[in-house]
Write a structure and sequence with these properties.
Layout lengths: L1 H36 L6 H22 L8 H5 L2 H33 L12 H26 L15 H13 L7 H5 L1
Helix pairs in contact: 1-2, 2-5, 4-5
């Protein structure tokens, strides 16, 4: 099962990369064509917008799994394990509710716009809303799995804080752990 899940997120990352690369080529190519040759790719803006929407939502799915979204953890880190679990469960239940709203609304909009053609490309406008369905299903699965880990006691104390520290903070904490408090730089060391 882990291979399937890892494969899904690898596929998402590949799609994100392809969306970004295609956007860059379309936008840059359109700029060159407009200023250099006084012509352009008519569908460039519309396709770039569609790719940007997909890139954003797929990136949000990956960030949700990797705990890469912004968060404030000053209070949660100081709570005992039970407090961390309560905060995680409450926050996940709220996120599940919002993800359900996103899924339901996106599904409705996809069905409404499935036969509406985009003006420049003729693509179905349901493509713009369909990514909300992909996001909603994926987010619900990730959040349900996180709740399962807490309910079964498989979540570690570190798993209960859903915010990843920046690399600089991790390096500082590791340095403090191994060498004690960091010393301020002297004037000669600062010049080097």
């Amino acid at each position: 099962m882990n291979k399937i899940v890892d494969g899904y997120f690898t596929l998402l990352k590949i799609i994100i990369t392809l969306c970004l690369a295609t956007m860059v080529v379309l936008v840059f190519g359109n700029v060159v064509l407009r200023y250099g040759f006084n012509m352009g790719i008519t569908a460039s803006e519309e396709i770039s917008r569609l790719l940007f929407v997909w890139l954003t939502f797929l990136g949000a799915i990956v960030a949700l799994r990797e705990h890469g979204h912004l968060g404030v953890d000053m209070l949660v880190r100081r709570l005992p394990s039970v407090g961390k679990k309560i905060c995680l469960v409450v926050s996940h239940l709220l996120m599940i509710y919002v993800s359900w709203l996103m899924l339901d609304g996106s599904w409705s909009q996809t069905l409404i716009n499935i036969d509406v053609a985009a003006p420049a490309t003729g693509f179905s406008m349901g493509l713009f809303y369909g990514v909300g369905v992909v996001f909603g299903v994926s987010a619900l699965a990730i959040l349900a799995y996180n709740l399962y880990l807490v309910a079964t006691g498989k979540a570690t104390d570190a798993d209960l804080v859903m915010v990843r520290d920046s690399e600089e903070l991790e390096e500082l904490e590791e340095m403090i752990e191994h060498h004690g408090q960091p010393q301020p730089l002297t004037a000669t060391a600062a010049k080097k």
